Amino acid sequence: MKNIDQMAAIITGGASGLGAAVARLLASKGVKVALLDMNADAGQALAAELGGVFCQADVSDQASVADALAKARAANGQERICVNCAGIAPAAKTVSRGAAHDLALFQKVINVNLVGTFNVSSQSALGMSAADALNEDGERGVIINTASVAAFEGQIGQVAYGASKGGVAAMTLPMARDLAKSGIRVLSVAPGIFKTPMVAAFSQEVQDALAANIPFPSRLGTPEEFAALVCHMIENSFMNGETVRLDGATRMQPR
Predict the structure, then answer these.
(1) Catalytic residues
(2) Is 154:161 a contact under the CB 8 Å cutoff?
(3) pLDDT tens for residues 3-14?
(4) 246 has which bridge partners?
(5) Superfamily name with CATH number, domain 8-192+226-246
(6) How far are the Cα atoms of 2, 57, 77, 174 from residue 117, in angstroms, in the given order?
């Protein structure tokens, strides 16, 4: 899609980290952004900074997402860009210290990372599919989801997270095929180790150790680099149905 100025976008997990970087870059290009997040304080502050709208939402809840999309559309119109960055990453082994993995925790990770991504994507796609085509290709919108290199090389303690992100990667192509007749593209980014607020809270020694395992460049990825790839995916209409790694050629070791 070209000429994205004044288009509407929704970004889940948009209050911080990768989602916030996407929101900032899109807003700088004139996109009308709506941030969906559970963190009301951070979300409202960033929305005010960007001239956007904040919608508190639990991505795993159908009614919550429907209400958030209604609020976003009332403010900005039908979104043509949907970027899913909301996610959680608790660590737990399949069996640890004589106990099985807590099933409720496993289900929560799947519900937020996988079910939540699908929930927002499907509801957004419904709205996009009823909108007018934007160009001669018949394009109506684009959905970009966040997988992870853990989808392919999950580490010890990442069984729930790896399963959830593997699901995001696996549904990219079939969703793109489902929505092709509606002119809606679907893509995923599989980031490696990025300097998000969670990682930035680690000691410098830990951050340096993480960066040392990245072949080139041997540093943590920046949220701005993630946002740049998302923006390219939005603007390049021939990209569809693919999960793209963004990881400095890293391949995760067991621990």
Answers:
(1) 161
(2) yes
(3) 999 999 999 999
(4) 191
(5) NAD(P)-binding Rossmann-like Domain (3.40.50.720)
(6) 25, 12, 21, 14
Domain ranges of the chain: 8-192+226-246
Asked whether 168 and 188 are in contact (CB, 8 A), the reply is yes
Flag whether pLDDT at 93 surpasses 90: yes
Alpha-carbon dihedral sign for residues 150, 152, 155, 157: positive
pLDDT at 197: 81
Contacts of 11 (CB under 8 A, 6+ apart): 19, 22, 23, 26, 33, 34, 35, 36, 83, 85
Q: What pLDDT is attached to residue 227?
A: 98
**Residues 36, 10 contacting (CB under 8 angstroms):** yes
What residues does 188 pair with on adjacent strands? 145, 243
Give the residue carrying structure tokens 């946002």. 227
> CA 207, CA 215: separation in Å to the nearest integer?
15
